[in-house]
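As a warm-up, study this chain.
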Amino acid sequence: MELVRLATPFARLAEVARLAQSQRLVYSCTDANTVICAASLRSDLAGPLGVWLDLSEDYSAQVAARDVATLSWIVELSDVVVAAATQAEQRAQVVRALLTDDEVNFVNDVATLSGAYNRPAPPRPINVWSWDGAVLRCGDEVLSRVATATLDAGQLTTFA
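Now compare it with the structure written out below.
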């Protein structure tokens, strides 16, 4: 399996829909909110799109889960990469836990959720990956960076 990340500025947003037609793409906006930019592509996308979200103390996994659930109703969202300087997998676990219609009771090193809800759940399953700076993980699947290229559209990184 191959996953391709495109990191591009808002001014190059039109390239995202074009590149998403030919590969499994996760998009990251370098100078604006990725979720809002991805949502604005709704009428331009012919298929699924993924997003790459950089989590931090200011952008928690809980807020990212809310954004992902909302975005999934606007575009066909296939993949979400949870990137964080620390505890990326634990943050991805929080996002995964909150992408259901069920009450969430969950504890790990980054969050304690008791009686939490994040409704409505996405209309389709979403692969939630974690990026720790070395590898992408989603369940038992592990992908490594195999190529990086700079295009007019932005920075393209391929993981396989």
